[in-house]
Amino acid sequence: MTNFSQCRTDPRRSHFTLENWEDTVTVEWDMIFREMGEFAPVNLGSAGYSGYDGVYILQDARERCQAETGLQLSYYSNFNASWFHPDRYAATVAMIAPHRVMNCTVGVNFFHPEYAKDGRPGRRCSLGKERMNESEDEREEYVRATGDTQATEEVDGRLVLKCFQERWFVAPSCRGNASNCVAVVTSGAGWGLHFMIQQAYFHNMPLAFASAEWEEYIDINLEFQPLSDRFERVTGGHTPPEVLVAGRLSDWSALYWWRPDETFVLQRGMAVVFPSHSVSEYKAGIYRTSQKELTLRKYAAAGLDVVADRVYGLAENLNIGDGDMANLLYLHAQSQAVNNGTAPETWDTACRWILSNTDAWQSWVPYQTVCAVGKGLVDLQNNFVSLRSEAVNCAVCPPGFASLKSQSTRVCSKCQPGFYQNSFRAAECLPCEPGTISSEAGSHHCTPCSLGSFANRSGMLACDRCGNGSQEELWTTSMQVDVYEETTWIQVQGASSAQFCFCVEGSFLWQGRCQQCTTGSYCRGSNQLEVLPGYFSSSVAPGEIYKCLSASHCPGGKPGTCTVGRDPDSLGCSSCLSMLRAKDGGSCGECDNGDYLLAVASVAAVFIGVGIIYYVPGLCDGTRVSQPGPLLITITSVTQLLTTVQILSVVHLFDIPWREPFASILEFLKIFNFNLDVLSIACLTPLDSLGEYVLRVCLMPVLMLVALLVHFGRLDTNGYLLFFHRPMSLRNLKLSQLFRTIGTIFMIWFIIVFSLLLEPFQCYEHPNQVLTLKHMYQSVLCNGQGRHMHMYIIGGVACAMPMGFLVFCTWIVLVEIPKGIAQVDTSALDAYFFLIRRLRPGAEIFSVLFQVRNLFVVLCPLVPSMSGKIVALNLVLGANLIAVVYVLPWRSAVSNFLDVVLLCGLLGITEMAALFVQDVDASNDIWVIMACLSLMVLGILGAVGFGIYKAIRQKFRKEFKFFLCHHKAASGSMARLLKIELQNRSPGSKTFVDSDDLMNLTRLFSYVAQDTDTFVVLGSPAIFTRKWCMGEMATAFTNEVRTVLLAWPTMVLPDEQFIENYRSTVPDIKELTKFGISLTDVRRLGEKLF
């Protein structure tokens, strides 16, 4: 291939070639032309005459042969050696000195693949360097076509033609006497040999072929002419008589030649006629027939039609026939002969021909109004016109116009809409490329389609709108690009097809229309919707965005994507696939041994928890008058902890976007919300949303049933078991303890139970405006139909449990407890002990108020707005804090302090929640929440630790060595003196005297029961009529505190009648009932004393 980087850069001096042989424009030339592009020469068509090369016989030889034999040597059949001897009329090998022709190595056996004249007159030019292997292929071609294996031999491993005298290739018909073969001399690298040697073989022609240098080639073929021809060629006159000799005057030659060429034109050479050209045989490499008559073409330099259009037109119109060309060549050769062999200038010969052949060339000259390509007709005002009759000249077509053919001339015509031309001298208007349009005639440029439109064909007048013209504001044209290794989408103008049509950023394509992206999705302008983490949409309805119960369930990405193991057919990936359970990280996996163990352990924990609730109160009271001790602080702290955890669980239902680590803490607390996924219940039985809800609703009845089983399991074996002893009374069943256990369970889990029952009443609006139940039942549509209606009814009916419990507690506090106090009988209050045990006397109403508080806490998530939820919860907790600080309802000061700490912590958390709801940076505020939570945890741990420490301490050392029970009016002074004396005798010990040590009346009896080593009664005469003294003595008696009675001489022990009439004797004894001391307890004490 030609290297165009090496092309000459000097000015071009040759602009036309008027004689280019058709077969020289090879495939390689076509490749070069394509590589040159707009700089490639322009084909102007045929020059009017044809070309032919092959074996020629000159005129004199033909005439002599015809005169002597009547045969013409111009026919191949007359060369047949089997019946004719053409060597008698043409020069033979013997007549030519061997040194005058080239050696076979550089001649016959050096066939050039492309035939060249190497700068000398001839009809072909070389396109590349000679290649030895291709000449060998042509020798093999000869053997394949003819089967003449005797014509070749191997030399140095190469196949070569055998040559006579190392100069001549001899045809088979004269190999027996090569010297007498007719000599056919060619030139160059064996021009024409590849087909001439086959023609000689096929037609039995006695020819020998050799190649000579160009000058030698001419001399050899001119020398073997009649002497008169040679003399005339030299002198231009007739042959003198003295040169004539007897016999043959000379010989005539056969030669390789071509036309048109002036070298042998005076000798009137005629080509030997072979059978008509066979295209099929030539394609097969068989050259038995004649060469093809070839068209001679004209070529012009690129751009010449612009800079010299009339010259270009003249060359384009030039057309010389074969006869005119032969006469022109003869005229040129004759001029050379007349000038004593000096070749005339070709310009001179051309001028002579032009002057004598005016009619032949006048039609070639373009008229003034025959416009060339790139020009058009103009009138006197230089305006473009379309009629030649109105024109006076031609002018260059400007941009927006094209030079179009109009009969024999050209006109500058405006480009039609959809077409353009941005250059001068354009021959045609160019169609607007896809992506661009021109709506007006005469456009010199095309306009790119705007965003949201495209042109998918060339030559369009208007752009098509994306989306068929609808939703124009939602359509654009864009393409994907990579920027810094990241893929992004950019908007582009000039879209060439509908494939560039995309919905604008913020919308996606669905069912042929652009849909707006909603909350939870991202549309980058690629027609695709990407779901953000924490949201979900199905693949069949990608625009229906649901917020997931947990961000870990929905990783985002393509619609229909869930975390591993989760069901993409469930709303928000809320359910696991069949036979799978929820795992850490939001995924679902197969149940393993640990899951089954956890499920079984959860069931076992229910029994253990109920058993603890059942037995711990018994440890604390023992008997009805057992006073609260240090263990009560621990129990109260634990219940306060559970209440706080449940309130935090309700706060978690607010769906506030908490940050870590508080978010994980709230997620962990879901275990206290009876979350069955956490407890691996799905491994025991698969449940849908309705089944899971029913199971959670039935959890409280199940706990009651477990309490019943624990209770009957505790009954002794003295014939009171239900299934083994029929005569059984309610008293024997000890139902008060069972009732206390069930009541305690309700009080502890009131918030959680009521909260889960209200879940069917809480709906959440997803970004697609579809309502579903919140949290664990997200797969249930909140539409009052189907599963939702079933859950609605079940929840509404089940709400009767906590509401009934609240009403029942209210009835107990407002009716039953006052009645028991009025009757001075605590036995009726045993079953209600769970309500008032932790509260100080007089604050019993707080057992109801705390449940009312819990009720309002549960109702807070039902408030529609987020701010309303937070405000409502703050109001409830704030009112609770004020009441606790003002009343101090708990029996223990530690419990009151802990309750204040917990409430302040909760208020701090809910106050900070507002910062997470707003669009502010709350990254630092989470530590405030964690500080509040830490304070609450430390308070609970401190209270529990304090209660345990005090309980252990009381086992080894009481706070008071002596407790002095006395009647102030009768023995106050004695009590003071005794205290001084006891402390002097026992240094480091303390003696309790109410006027010195009693700070809180509610703790009076607990001092006796838990903090006293020796209980001392100062027995003045009226001490048995003092209610507080009787209460102290009854407490000491019941708790088996060591007691010493110091009787006054006038003291009288109570008798049986005094004990029976004690209520009327001491009517305000009923006030002791608030402290768990009944009239029965007092009578037992009297009986003991009596």
From TrEMBL:
Domain Tyrosine-protein kinase ephrin type A/B receptor-like stretches:
435-470
Alphabetized, the UniProt keywords read: Membrane, Transmembrane, Transmembrane helix
Q: Which residues cross the membrane?
A: 596-617, 629-654, 693-717, 738-758, 791-814, 845-864, 870-888, 900-920, 926-949
Q: Does the keyword Transmembrane helix apply?
A: yes
PANTHER family reported for this sequence: INSULIN-LIKE GROWTH FACTOR BINDING PROTEIN,N-TERMINAL (PTHR46967), KERATIN-ASSOCIATED PROTEIN 16-1-LIKE (PTHR46967:SF1)
In its UniProt entry, what is this protein called?
Tyrosine-protein kinase ephrin type A/B receptor-like domain-containing protein
Q: Which organism is it from?
A: Durusdinium trenchii
